[in-house]
């Protein structure tokens, strides 16, 4: 039921990259949730208001008033509205509709897929993190489930269920949380049962220049003691050294190796959210320019630094997995607040270590665990509400792009394909499902998302045929065998299918994926047919030989 | 007067290429009578010489009122300067029905330098990200790929969309000219995209047309000796064909492996196909009598298999590539061939082949079993209950 609020006719839709410079003429409709353009051949273009990142009115031309809409999924649409007055109205409406003041105004709260209540509830129960931790092998003799945060009293942005070393008592937990930015003390992110090593995550210590905290030091000792294979552990600060040092002046900073016994400290510089935001902006400027020369494109790409950042994220993940796989050492990862770069590095690291996360379901679990439950601020980073523009940053996009690079290097190692990654990205921004709304688990509970909205995961699982990689080989890497990507610079490619997803004229016009999927289907069907025919044949032979044999 | 130099005859045998009308109903397009010609530059010289025979020849190609396009692969400046050394361009007054377009394409020394720089950059594994993109940009190889594809598209568009005749030439007609005409044919003509058709194209447009392979493909990218005549035009052509295969993975009957083999053999070969600089030299050296042909070897039933594209499905339409920088990729299979293991990509490709062709036919296939059982009522299939 789309309640249409505005209709404008004779609007032109320009195609940025079409060689024929053609434009389509049609009618523009605005509803409460979408913008809809229907052209003269009845083709529909739907744009979700929540997907809109920016609307711009360009100077009046002879053909009308141009309106450029940039979406969060990198789609850019260029309309030309014949009358300036109409253009102005649409512009204002879109500005209003794309800004939301309250979560309840988001699409997720009105989206109705016509399921009954039990289906909705089951949808939310599809991914169970307690099951996941069990699969990893915790709790065990060294690691236990702590209920210290069950009312979010210790840390508001952490989940209720936290796994800590058995020797980490409640006073240690409380003390350590007081010494960590935003109370995000060291907890388990991933447990590698073969190596008995752990990936832990936290935020920066409030060490300033010289402050110490006995409980925090005990916490780290507990983590390294929980690893019987190795006496030392790594602490990875994913910030550039300069930034981390600057934080000391603000009473924060990083761990001093002198104070923490048995730790090896390592900076693996990944830039902060502001640098990433600006990097993406520059990339989009390049990709949005028509008629670019190869040199302008390459130098634009280089100036944005975007691929350099992707490489930095993957390099950090590689450092992490080497520590675990080669040295059997536990690793504690943090950045400033432990919800951006930390999420990237921990989740990518686990993906490289554990083939489960390379399956469709496993990837959903990974995102639920390291991104959603551990409080990556989806709402702020993806601008779900009309908030602080300085909080917006493509951190999750970079994670997906890193995974995409891995699927390109290891075409047979992943059960899912590029379309899966793109669809998840689409829905992180669409706010059609409740999973990514809000900034942390506590907020999601307060909003009663599980009762009022639907989960994305069953929706994706229903369509999983589209997301399967036909080349997937489950035996590619046996369980818990490492993926070792080559991160030399030339391995990183521009992700055309993400940044030009909607620019059809740029793409290979023939889809190898579709063909192979069809072939795969056909082969399976043919094999099935052969089995049936053979069975049928047996029956008929027996009838022929034995006249008393009944066909029933 | 018409040039009688050994390097190229003016005009050389016109290469005829059937144009195709824009796809409408999906049925195979009828052959339209457009022609694509290639030649070398007219020897107008500083005194604006004319050649009656040349004008008549070009005149007969066009019917009354028809237009033709001349695509000159030199810049307008360079073409003008060529007059000083006896060459030049077709003056508008003498060739009124022909419209001249300049699309400068890099060749010679510059192209070889570009190639060398690219290979250097690819070999440097210590390079960091920004410097890699920097070096990729500064070697300009991908720009040359884009320019070649664009010009070939232009020639193809003139024939297909404008339904006009096209004449392509540069200076000698043995380098960028052949690049454009050969590439345009791959774009326009589905028969050039079959394995046999492509071999025929190479024979016609590169070997017989007199591309000086011996001079151009002497030492490749690693040699310290920077030979004056060395230039990787043929590699540029192969790279452009590879770009087409990425954009249209079902439309070429041959695979990347063929392109790599051709690249190898152009520079060093056990076969005589790419020897010498032109047909005259090949006759003098008795190449046909004393060597084996690469095609003869490639076309053997066992060998041929290896060069086929399992995804091939004949496509009667014209294939128009996107020449946006985002669509042009670095030919990793060639430039990283010895630098980086392609094991996972090779395995994935083998998997694709397996999926498309079905598994190795076992000695006793299910189909055979079934037909045996049907003809012999007493035979029992293996998995009988």
Descriptive overview:
The complex is a heterodimer of chains A (about 550) and B (about 375). Chain A is α+β, with helices and mostly antiparallel strands. Chain A folds into 3 domains: about 5-100, Roll (PH-domain like); about 120-500, no CATH class; about 510-545. Helices cover about 40% and strands about 15% of the residues of chain A. Chain A has 20 helices and 14 strands. Chain A has helices at about 85-100, 115-125, 130-135, 170-180, 215-225, 240-250, 275-285, 295-305, 305-325, 340-355, 360-375, 380, 395-410, 420-430, 440-445, 450, 455-460, 465, 495-500, 510-545, and strands spanning about 5-15, 25-30, 35-40, 45-50, 50-55, 65-70, 75-80, 145, 160-165, 185-190, 195-200, 235, 265, 330-335. In chain A, the strands form 3 sheets. Chain A has a 7-stranded antiparallel β-sheet, with helices on one face. In chain A, strands 10-11-14-12-13 form a 5-stranded mixed β-sheet, sandwiched between helices. In chain A, strands 8-9 form a two-stranded antiparallel sheet. In chain A, strand 5 and strand 6 (about 65-70) form a beta hairpin. In chain A, helix 4 (about 170-180) packs across helix 5 (about 215-225) and helix 9 packs across helix 10. Chain B is mainly alpha-helical and about 375 residues long. Chain B has one domain. Helix content of chain B is about 45%, strand content about 5%. A 4-stranded parallel β-sheet of chain B has the order 1-4-2-3, with helices on one face. In chain B, helix 6 (about 175-190) runs parallel beside helix 9. The model of chain B is unreliable at about 1-30, about 360-365 and about 375-385 (pLDDT under 50). Classes of the chains: A alpha+beta (about 550), B mainly alpha (about 375). The interface between A and B is large, with 56 and 59 residues.
